[in-house]
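Propose amino acids for all 229 sites.
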């Protein structure tokens, strides 16, 4: 796995999964300048009239000026989080391959377990398992360890990595670079930071928004106001 960057934010309270904004292009001025290019105007600092323009663009869904920038993240997350993440297709991604490298013994183990929502097939609710909670953790932990043991035995027997990896659980950590423009990023945040999104991906979305807020402070502030995030 790639070394953890200094500015990484750990997302799942296990000091394994993280997200890190490793590079960016553009700022609030880029959005204003791309919106006003028709008039041949350009700014170098944000004024009140520029904030009003950004608010108008966001409120009225005139969002193409938000596309003239770039955000690149290094992400380390469980496979089940990554598979939700990759449904957002307006982005570029390059992921570690367990065909080329051996998977590390790194798994996401929930600190607590949730129950299935009775009125939402894809949602969960706070669990109250009592003494069963520790047993749930034991079952989960045993399952991932047994899967990894099987993986290692297959590799030791000479089985190709591309086949042996099939026994790894969805709790296995993967890692990838994800590059996206601000418009697509905010769409991701709107869906994945929502209270009805899966808890684990919410943690990544909130951490990413915190990092991007320092790059686009005015735009993110206005977007939050409009979306009550």
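Proposal:
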């Amino acid at each position: 796995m790639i070394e953890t960057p200094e500015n990484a934010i750990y997302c799942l309270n296990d000091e394994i999964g993280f997200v890190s904004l490793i590079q960016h292009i553009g700022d609030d001025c880029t959005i204003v300048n791309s919106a006003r290019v028709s008039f041949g105007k350009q700014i170098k600092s944000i004024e009140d009239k520029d904030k009003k323009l950004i608010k108008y663009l966001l409120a009225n869904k005139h969002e193409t000026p938000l596309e003239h920038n770039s955000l690149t993240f290094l992400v380390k997350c469980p496979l089940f989080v990554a598979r939700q993440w990759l449904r957002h297709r307006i982005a570029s991604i390059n992921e570690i391959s367990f065909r080329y490298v051996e998977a590390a013994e790194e798994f996401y183990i929930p600190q607590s377990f949730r129950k299935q929502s009775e009125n939402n097939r894809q949602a969960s609710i706070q669990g109250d398992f009592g003494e069963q909670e520790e047993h749930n953790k034991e079952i989960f932990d045993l399952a991932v360890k047994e899967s990894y043991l099987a993986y290692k035995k297959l590799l030791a027997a000479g089985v190709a990595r591309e086949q042996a990896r099939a026994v790894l659980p969805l709790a296995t950590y993967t890692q990838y670079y994800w590059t996206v423009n601000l418009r697509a990023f905010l769409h991701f945040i709107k869906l994945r930071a929502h209270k009805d999104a899966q808890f684990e991906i919410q943690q990544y979305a909130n951490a990413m928004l915190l990092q991007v807020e320092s790059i686009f402070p005015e735009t993110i502030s206005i977007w939050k106001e409009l979306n009550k995030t």
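Strands lie at 9-10, 18-25, 70-78, 92-95, 114-116, 124-126, 173-180. The mean pLDDT is 94.
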